[in-house]
Amino acid sequence: MYLQEEIKAITSKLAKLYDSPITIITKESGYSRPTVSKFYNLHPLKPSSIEKLYDVCLELIEKKEKKRNQSLQKEHSLLKGVKPNIQTSLEV
Fold it and tell me: CA 37 from chain center: how many Å?
């Protein structure tokens, strides 16, 4: 069984990564919005539901992190050798 602190940490991470995390979890998990809302707000649920929703949340975070890493790699390869034009003073 997952601790409330663990669930809170994972839902907080999702809130930073997605605009509508409850909607996305609902879509990915197949659970109803009220069930996902209970999970998200740390209300009691069946252990099997908590486990499934926790796993779905981990998968969503992993998916977003993979996409971010791919974007960073793409950026580095496309901008290799390009020096950023950064203004270091306010002299005009």
Answer: 16
